[in-house]
Amino acid sequence: MCIVKFLDDENSVAVVPNKWILEDGWCVWPPYEINPQKILRAVKQGQIPTKPDDWKRCKIEVVHHYEIIIHENLQNSDRWKKSAYSESEADASNRCLRKRGSVTTAEGLKCGKMALLNYTSPPTSLDGSKRCQTVMQKPMPASSESASASIAGDQNVEAPYVVESNRDSVTYLFPQPIEKSQSGFQREVIIVLSDIKLRLSRLESAVATKKLTHSATDWDDEEFALLPARCDEDLQEIFGKVQRDKHFKKKLVARFGSIGGRKPSLHVNSILSDLLTDELAVEAVKEYKKTPSVITKDEVNSFIQTWLRHAKDRIQAKAKSDNLTSHCQDENDSNNIDGADSEDLF
Protein backbone atom coordinates (compact mmCIF):
# COMPACT_ATOMS: atom_id res chain seq x y z
CA MET A 1 0.00 0.00 0.00
CA CYS A 2 1.07 3.58 -0.65
CA ILE A 3 -0.14 7.01 0.39
CA VAL A 4 -0.34 9.12 -2.76
CA LYS A 5 -1.21 12.73 -3.42
CA PHE A 6 -3.10 13.54 -6.62
CA LEU A 7 -1.38 16.47 -8.32
CA ASP A 8 -4.47 17.38 -10.34
CA ASP A 9 -6.28 18.04 -7.07
CA GLU A 10 -3.98 19.35 -4.31
CA ASN A 11 -6.49 18.50 -1.57
CA SER A 12 -6.91 14.87 -2.67
CA VAL A 13 -4.96 12.13 -0.88
CA ALA A 14 -5.64 8.39 -1.03
CA VAL A 15 -4.27 5.00 -0.07
CA VAL A 16 -3.74 2.80 -3.15
CA PRO A 17 -2.15 -0.61 -3.78
CA ASN A 18 1.34 -0.73 -5.25
CA LYS A 19 -0.09 -2.47 -8.33
CA TRP A 20 -1.94 0.72 -9.32
CA ILE A 21 1.18 2.88 -9.41
CA LEU A 22 2.77 3.20 -12.85
CA GLU A 23 6.08 4.62 -13.95
CA ASP A 24 6.85 8.34 -14.30
CA GLY A 25 4.53 9.32 -11.43
CA TRP A 26 1.24 8.00 -12.81
CA CYS A 27 -1.47 5.97 -11.11
CA VAL A 28 -4.62 4.21 -12.30
CA TRP A 29 -7.94 4.70 -10.52
CA PRO A 30 -11.03 2.44 -10.80
CA PRO A 31 -14.13 3.83 -12.54
CA TYR A 32 -16.40 3.36 -9.53
CA GLU A 33 -17.09 7.00 -8.57
CA ILE A 34 -20.79 6.32 -7.99
CA ASN A 35 -20.09 3.21 -5.88
CA PRO A 36 -17.67 3.95 -3.00
CA GLN A 37 -18.01 0.40 -1.65
CA LYS A 38 -16.52 -1.01 -4.85
CA ILE A 39 -13.60 1.43 -4.59
CA LEU A 40 -12.93 0.41 -0.98
CA ARG A 41 -13.15 -3.28 -1.90
CA ALA A 42 -10.79 -2.78 -4.86
CA VAL A 43 -8.25 -1.01 -2.63
CA LYS A 44 -8.36 -3.71 0.06
CA GLN A 45 -8.07 -6.57 -2.43
CA GLY A 46 -5.51 -4.82 -4.64
CA GLN A 47 -7.71 -5.44 -7.66
CA ILE A 48 -5.90 -5.62 -10.99
CA PRO A 49 -7.69 -3.81 -13.85
CA THR A 50 -9.03 -6.30 -16.39
CA LYS A 51 -9.71 -3.45 -18.82
CA PRO A 52 -6.93 -0.88 -18.30
CA ASP A 53 -8.50 1.51 -20.81
CA ASP A 54 -11.56 1.90 -18.58
CA TRP A 55 -9.48 2.94 -15.57
CA LYS A 56 -8.60 6.59 -15.10
CA ARG A 57 -4.95 7.69 -15.22
CA CYS A 58 -3.96 10.32 -12.64
CA LYS A 59 -0.74 12.22 -12.03
CA ILE A 60 0.38 11.46 -8.47
CA GLU A 61 3.18 11.90 -5.98
CA VAL A 62 4.00 9.02 -3.62
CA VAL A 63 3.99 10.33 -0.05
CA HIS A 64 4.87 7.13 1.81
CA HIS A 65 4.93 3.36 1.47
CA TYR A 66 2.81 1.50 4.01
CA GLU A 67 5.36 -1.34 4.27
CA ILE A 68 8.04 1.18 5.26
CA ILE A 69 5.76 2.57 7.97
CA ILE A 70 5.22 -0.91 9.44
CA HIS A 71 8.97 -1.62 9.32
CA GLU A 72 9.75 1.66 11.09
CA ASN A 73 7.13 0.90 13.72
CA LEU A 74 8.75 -2.47 14.51
CA GLN A 75 12.22 -0.89 14.60
CA ASN A 76 11.10 1.92 16.90
CA SER A 77 9.38 -0.53 19.24
CA ASP A 78 12.52 -2.71 19.55
CA ARG A 79 14.74 0.36 19.87
CA TRP A 80 12.79 1.80 22.77
CA LYS A 81 12.79 -1.57 24.56
CA LYS A 82 16.58 -1.83 24.22
CA SER A 83 16.95 1.81 25.29
CA ALA A 84 14.97 1.20 28.48
CA TYR A 85 17.12 -1.85 29.23
CA SER A 86 20.34 0.11 28.59
CA GLU A 87 19.19 2.95 30.86
CA SER A 88 18.52 0.49 33.69
CA GLU A 89 22.04 -0.94 33.23
CA ALA A 90 23.47 2.60 33.25
CA ASP A 91 21.66 3.43 36.50
CA ALA A 92 23.05 0.28 38.13
CA SER A 93 26.56 1.16 36.91
CA ASN A 94 26.20 4.73 38.19
CA ARG A 95 25.21 3.48 41.65
CA CYS A 96 28.25 1.18 41.77
CA LEU A 97 30.61 3.98 40.74
CA ARG A 98 29.25 6.30 43.41
CA LYS A 99 29.83 3.64 46.06
CA ARG A 100 33.48 3.59 45.04
CA GLY A 101 33.75 7.29 45.87
CA SER A 102 33.81 8.64 42.31
CA VAL A 103 33.12 12.27 41.56
CA THR A 104 29.43 13.14 41.33
CA THR A 105 27.77 14.30 38.15
CA ALA A 106 27.67 17.95 39.19
CA GLU A 107 31.37 17.92 40.13
CA GLY A 108 32.26 16.30 36.84
CA LEU A 109 30.50 19.01 34.91
CA LYS A 110 32.49 21.68 36.81
CA CYS A 111 35.68 20.45 35.13
CA GLY A 112 34.74 22.37 32.01
CA LYS A 113 32.68 21.92 28.87
CA MET A 114 33.41 18.73 27.00
CA ALA A 115 34.29 18.19 23.37
CA LEU A 116 32.81 15.27 21.52
CA LEU A 117 35.65 13.03 20.36
CA ASN A 118 33.83 10.16 18.76
CA TYR A 119 30.10 9.88 18.19
CA THR A 120 28.47 7.69 15.62
CA SER A 121 24.94 6.50 15.16
CA PRO A 122 24.03 3.58 17.45
CA PRO A 123 25.17 0.26 15.97
CA THR A 124 22.58 -2.21 14.79
CA SER A 125 22.47 -5.58 16.52
CA LEU A 126 21.67 -8.90 14.89
CA ASP A 127 17.97 -8.63 15.73
CA GLY A 128 17.69 -5.27 13.96
CA SER A 129 17.52 -3.15 17.12
CA LYS A 130 19.84 -0.24 17.85
CA ARG A 131 21.77 -0.03 21.12
CA CYS A 132 23.08 3.02 22.92
CA GLN A 133 26.79 3.77 22.63
CA THR A 134 29.09 5.10 25.36
CA VAL A 135 31.66 7.66 24.18
CA MET A 136 34.52 9.42 25.97
CA GLN A 137 34.83 13.16 26.56
CA LYS A 138 37.92 15.14 27.48
CA PRO A 139 37.94 18.54 29.18
CA MET A 140 38.60 21.64 27.12
CA PRO A 141 38.74 25.35 27.92
CA ALA A 142 35.55 26.84 29.22
CA SER A 143 35.66 29.62 26.59
CA SER A 144 35.02 27.15 23.80
CA GLU A 145 31.30 26.61 23.37
CA SER A 146 31.29 24.68 20.12
CA ALA A 147 30.71 21.29 21.74
CA SER A 148 27.89 22.46 24.00
CA ALA A 149 26.28 24.32 21.13
CA SER A 150 26.45 21.27 18.89
CA ILE A 151 24.93 19.06 21.57
CA ALA A 152 22.23 21.51 22.61
CA GLY A 153 21.41 22.49 19.02
CA ASP A 154 20.78 18.96 17.87
CA GLN A 155 17.06 18.46 18.18
CA ASN A 156 17.26 14.75 17.45
CA VAL A 157 19.58 13.83 20.35
CA GLU A 158 18.78 13.95 24.05
CA ALA A 159 21.15 15.79 26.38
CA PRO A 160 23.92 13.34 27.47
CA TYR A 161 24.33 12.48 31.13
CA VAL A 162 27.51 11.53 33.02
CA VAL A 163 28.13 7.91 33.89
CA GLU A 164 31.67 8.29 35.31
CA SER A 165 33.80 11.38 35.94
CA ASN A 166 37.30 12.13 37.25
CA ARG A 167 40.02 14.74 36.76
CA ASP A 168 41.24 13.23 33.50
CA SER A 169 38.16 12.23 31.60
CA VAL A 170 34.41 12.06 31.70
CA THR A 171 32.35 9.18 30.36
CA TYR A 172 29.04 10.13 28.80
CA LEU A 173 26.13 7.93 27.88
CA PHE A 174 24.34 9.25 24.83
CA PRO A 175 20.78 7.97 24.62
CA GLN A 176 19.35 6.96 21.29
CA PRO A 177 18.20 9.78 18.97
CA ILE A 178 14.77 11.07 19.80
CA GLU A 179 12.83 9.40 17.05
CA LYS A 180 9.42 9.40 18.60
CA SER A 181 7.32 6.61 17.27
CA GLN A 182 5.37 8.23 14.49
CA SER A 183 4.08 5.00 13.02
CA GLY A 184 0.99 4.96 15.26
CA PHE A 185 0.18 8.54 14.31
CA GLN A 186 0.78 7.79 10.63
CA ARG A 187 -1.52 4.79 10.83
CA GLU A 188 -4.24 7.00 12.31
CA VAL A 189 -3.67 9.51 9.50
CA ILE A 190 -4.09 6.74 6.93
CA ILE A 191 -7.35 5.61 8.52
CA VAL A 192 -8.69 9.17 8.68
CA LEU A 193 -7.68 9.91 5.08
CA SER A 194 -9.34 6.71 3.87
CA ASP A 195 -12.51 7.63 5.75
CA ILE A 196 -12.46 11.16 4.32
CA LYS A 197 -11.95 9.80 0.82
CA LEU A 198 -14.88 7.41 1.24
CA ARG A 199 -17.12 10.14 2.64
CA LEU A 200 -16.22 12.46 -0.25
CA SER A 201 -17.06 9.73 -2.75
CA ARG A 202 -20.41 9.16 -1.07
CA LEU A 203 -21.08 12.90 -1.05
CA GLU A 204 -20.23 13.18 -4.74
CA SER A 205 -22.53 10.28 -5.60
CA ALA A 206 -25.31 11.83 -3.50
CA VAL A 207 -24.88 15.19 -5.24
CA ALA A 208 -24.89 13.50 -8.64
CA THR A 209 -28.06 11.59 -7.74
CA LYS A 210 -29.72 14.75 -6.49
CA LYS A 211 -28.91 16.53 -9.74
CA LEU A 212 -30.56 13.73 -11.71
CA THR A 213 -33.64 13.76 -9.45
CA HIS A 214 -36.19 16.51 -9.89
CA SER A 215 -36.76 18.60 -6.79
CA ALA A 216 -40.21 19.01 -5.28
CA THR A 217 -40.50 22.58 -6.57
CA ASP A 218 -40.37 21.33 -10.16
CA TRP A 219 -43.75 19.63 -9.68
CA ASP A 220 -45.62 22.65 -8.31
CA ASP A 221 -47.60 23.32 -11.49
CA GLU A 222 -51.27 23.44 -12.39
CA GLU A 223 -51.38 19.79 -13.44
CA PHE A 224 -50.99 18.72 -9.81
CA ALA A 225 -53.45 21.22 -8.35
CA LEU A 226 -55.73 18.35 -7.28
CA LEU A 227 -53.03 16.80 -5.08
CA PRO A 228 -53.67 15.82 -2.41
CA ALA A 229 -57.17 14.61 -3.33
CA ARG A 230 -59.78 15.92 -0.88
CA CYS A 231 -62.75 13.89 -2.09
CA ASP A 232 -63.55 10.83 -4.16
CA GLU A 233 -64.28 12.97 -7.24
CA ASP A 234 -60.77 14.47 -7.15
CA LEU A 235 -59.28 11.00 -6.85
CA GLN A 236 -61.32 9.65 -9.77
CA GLU A 237 -60.32 12.64 -11.89
CA ILE A 238 -56.63 12.01 -11.16
CA PHE A 239 -56.97 8.31 -12.07
CA GLY A 240 -58.76 9.17 -15.30
CA LYS A 241 -56.09 11.69 -16.25
CA VAL A 242 -53.38 9.11 -15.62
CA GLN A 243 -55.08 6.69 -18.04
CA ARG A 244 -55.64 9.33 -20.73
CA ASP A 245 -52.48 11.43 -20.60
CA LYS A 246 -49.17 9.53 -20.82
CA HIS A 247 -47.19 12.73 -20.23
CA PHE A 248 -49.06 13.39 -16.98
CA LYS A 249 -48.57 9.76 -15.92
CA LYS A 250 -44.82 10.03 -16.49
CA LYS A 251 -44.62 13.26 -14.48
CA LEU A 252 -46.70 11.76 -11.65
CA VAL A 253 -44.43 8.72 -11.45
CA ALA A 254 -41.37 11.00 -11.39
CA ARG A 255 -42.98 13.10 -8.64
CA PHE A 256 -43.62 10.07 -6.44
CA GLY A 257 -40.18 8.68 -7.25
CA SER A 258 -38.52 11.86 -5.98
CA ILE A 259 -40.13 11.41 -2.55
CA GLY A 260 -37.53 9.83 -0.30
CA GLY A 261 -37.62 7.85 2.90
CA ARG A 262 -35.17 5.95 5.10
CA LYS A 263 -37.39 2.85 5.02
CA PRO A 264 -39.95 1.52 2.50
CA SER A 265 -42.75 2.17 4.99
CA LEU A 266 -41.80 5.85 5.26
CA HIS A 267 -41.58 6.07 1.47
CA VAL A 268 -45.09 4.62 1.04
CA ASN A 269 -46.48 6.89 3.78
CA SER A 270 -45.01 9.97 2.09
CA ILE A 271 -46.53 9.02 -1.27
CA LEU A 272 -49.96 8.41 0.29
CA SER A 273 -49.79 11.72 2.19
CA ASP A 274 -49.07 13.46 -1.11
CA LEU A 275 -51.95 11.63 -2.83
CA LEU A 276 -54.75 11.68 -0.21
CA THR A 277 -55.84 13.84 2.68
CA ASP A 278 -56.47 12.17 6.04
CA GLU A 279 -60.21 12.88 5.77
CA LEU A 280 -60.42 11.05 2.44
CA ALA A 281 -58.26 8.24 3.84
CA VAL A 282 -60.86 7.62 6.58
CA GLU A 283 -63.53 7.16 3.91
CA ALA A 284 -61.26 5.01 1.74
CA VAL A 285 -60.57 2.39 4.43
CA LYS A 286 -63.77 0.43 3.78
CA GLU A 287 -63.47 0.68 0.01
CA TYR A 288 -59.88 -0.51 0.13
CA LYS A 289 -60.89 -3.59 2.10
CA LYS A 290 -63.71 -4.43 -0.34
CA THR A 291 -61.71 -3.90 -3.54
CA PRO A 292 -59.25 -6.68 -4.46
CA SER A 293 -55.71 -5.37 -4.26
CA VAL A 294 -53.69 -5.02 -7.47
CA ILE A 295 -50.44 -4.54 -5.54
CA THR A 296 -48.05 -7.45 -6.03
CA LYS A 297 -45.94 -6.93 -2.91
CA ASP A 298 -47.62 -7.92 0.36
CA GLU A 299 -45.25 -5.65 2.30
CA VAL A 300 -46.37 -2.52 0.42
CA ASN A 301 -50.00 -3.62 0.75
CA SER A 302 -49.52 -3.88 4.52
CA PHE A 303 -47.97 -0.39 4.62
CA ILE A 304 -50.99 1.07 2.81
CA GLN A 305 -53.46 -0.65 5.15
CA THR A 306 -51.58 0.62 8.19
CA TRP A 307 -51.50 4.19 6.87
CA LEU A 308 -55.22 4.18 6.11
CA ARG A 309 -56.05 2.61 9.47
CA HIS A 310 -54.27 5.38 11.39
CA ALA A 311 -55.93 8.23 9.48
CA LYS A 312 -58.31 8.99 12.39
CA ASP A 313 -55.41 9.15 14.82
CA ARG A 314 -53.63 11.67 12.62
CA ILE A 315 -56.75 13.84 12.41
CA GLN A 316 -57.15 13.82 16.20
CA ALA A 317 -53.48 14.60 16.76
CA LYS A 318 -53.68 17.49 14.30
CA ALA A 319 -56.78 18.86 16.06
CA LYS A 320 -55.04 18.69 19.45
CA SER A 321 -52.01 20.45 18.02
CA ASP A 322 -54.17 23.21 16.53
CA ASN A 323 -56.04 23.68 19.82
CA LEU A 324 -52.78 23.86 21.75
CA THR A 325 -51.36 26.39 19.31
CA SER A 326 -54.45 28.60 19.51
CA HIS A 327 -54.45 28.35 23.32
CA CYS A 328 -50.82 29.46 23.50
CA GLN A 329 -51.55 32.29 21.09
CA ASP A 330 -54.46 33.49 23.26
CA GLU A 331 -52.25 33.44 26.36
CA ASN A 332 -49.58 35.47 24.58
CA ASP A 333 -52.16 38.01 23.45
CA SER A 334 -53.55 38.34 26.99
CA ASN A 335 -50.05 38.80 28.40
CA ASN A 336 -49.33 41.51 25.87
CA ILE A 337 -52.54 43.32 26.82
CA ASP A 338 -51.74 43.10 30.56
CA GLY A 339 -48.26 44.43 29.91
CA ALA A 340 -49.62 47.37 27.96
CA ASP A 341 -52.08 48.20 30.78
CA SER A 342 -49.31 48.12 33.38
CA GLU A 343 -47.22 50.49 31.28
CA ASP A 344 -50.16 52.91 31.10
CA LEU A 345 -50.30 53.00 34.92
CA PHE A 346 -46.76 54.34 35.07
Automatic annotation (TrEMBL):
This is DUF4806 domain-containing protein. It comes from Allacma fusca. It comes from the Eukaryota. Residues 322-346 are annotated as: Disordered.
